[in-house]
Amino acid sequence: MPTLFDWEFAADPYPAYAWLRAHAPVRRTRLPSGVEAWLVTRYADARQALADQRLSKNPGYHGERSAHGKGKVGIPGERSANLMTHLLNIDPPDHTRLRRLVAKAFTPRRVAAFAPRVQELTDRLIDDILARQEGDGPGEADLIHEFAFPLPIYAICDLLGVPAEDQDDFRDWAAMMLRHGNAPRGGVGRAVKKMRNYLAQLIHRKRAELAEQPAGADEDLISGLIRASDHGEHLTENEAAAMAFILLFAGFETTVNLIGNGTYALLRHPEQRARLQQAAGQGTDGDEEFLARAVEELLRYDGPVELATWRFATQPLTLGGQRIEEGEPVLVVLAAADRDPEKFAGPDVLDLTRADNQHLGYGHGIHYCLGAPLARLEGQTAIATLLRRLPDVRLAAEPEDLRWRGGLIMRGLRTLPVAFNPPEHPGK
Q1: In sequence order, what DSSP letters do the residues of 234-276 get, joined into one string?
Q2: What does the pLDDT read at residue 68?
Q3: Which of 160, 211, 261, 386 is 20 to 30 A from residue 347's alpha carbon, by CA?
Q4: How far apart are the C-alpha atoms of 137 and 132, rounded to whole Å?
């Protein structure tokens, strides 16, 4: 049995997951927090678990309730900040009701209309990177902190309706949340509470403003939630704040990791990167299709979400030949399932031409990631623009010197130092 969840494992968990798939595909494991949970690593079992209605998202079913009360499962700080009532913690019918309200913000038409704004933000961040360079030598940047992190933060703030003058505060709070176990003691909880207090004030302020305004087709998401709650949808202020919080939390970190992990994979696979770079530069319909397919492969190969969020058995059940008792936690290891050789040919090979790529990077079933269309748009725009505007971008550190963030659910680099030659004509 390989060692799990130490720093060496975090750098490359895939050999350990391969061992689990082969020898113990559904295994009860003690996590670093002390909580014991079942890890599911094979694709078929993972897909079954993600859609199994006997596995609840409601932490109230957890047998170790004292552990949950101490914040050992779920998002740090969400309970004390009264932010528990969101899509990652509830089941139908409440899940169905709340998801229907929020889904209006992520329709294909709405996401497509948001594309110019995503491109504008992406170009602005690269402009800022170029503006910070001094002298005639190679430029340097940290693509996590200067590019992959701010892009989804500003995008989701725009979508939610956070005023521009407040978005830097959101960026600071999100940065603290992103640090997880590396944050100062209690720092994540304090950041969550600050965000909760701000959201309550923003909802109160918007409610007063909306009382005198007709509804608009392009209204921001928080305004839409307020109007729904004021017109019979029974959305409480706590639910609205929790929904805004989880959209921010889930909507920025997954995209940070998609851009960061995806770019890192391309920098380590020059032949694949060259093909994608050609597509990014030409921009024909066929190249756009290739770019979309490439991002799906990056999601499969080293995706932003390593383990799906917590599930709890509401009754005894059998999964992968193992009996799981009522109240026991189940964690589906998406990173392991997406490299299952029973599902994917050459699963450890990055192949941007891979077709019929039914990965589980954004989940499966009724809890499939609501913001996946926006994350895909941001990932495609960010990676294509980066390769087009900084065509010789390269790693400025040895891979073994890079560090991955702590935390159980997400997978992402702390930093991604790169070097590049500033373009002679830094156009967009």
Answers
A1: ---HHHHHHHHHHHHHHHHHHHHHHHHHHHHHHHT-HHHHHHH
A2: 45
A3: 386
A4: 12
Residues 366-370: contacts with CB under 8 Å, at least 24 apart = 366/51, 366/92, 366/95, 366/96, 366/99, 367/50, 367/57, 367/87, 367/88, 367/95, 369/250, 369/254, 370/87, 370/99, 370/102, 370/103, 370/106
Other C-beta atoms within 10 Å of 329: how many? 25
* pLDDT value at 185 more than 60: no
Q: Has residue 233 got a pLDDT over 70?
A: no
Tokens 């859609």 locate to 51
- Indicate the helix (H) or strand (E) that contains 119: helix 108-131
Give the percent of the chain with pLDDT over 70. 88
150-160 and 108-131 are packed helices; what angle lies between their axes, rounded to 10 degrees? 140
What pTM does this model have?
Answer: 0.91
The three-state secondary structure class of 13 is coil
Whose tokens are 């910070």? That residue is 132
pLDDT per residue as tens digits for the range 371-408? 889 999 999 999 999 999 999 999 999 999 999 987 78
Do residues 297 and 357 make contact, with C-beta atoms less than 8 angstroms apart?
A: yes
By DSSP bridging, strand 36-40 and strand 329-332 are parallel
> Beta strands 139-142 and 329-332: pairing type?
unpaired
Q: Identify the three-state secondary structure at position 331.
A: strand
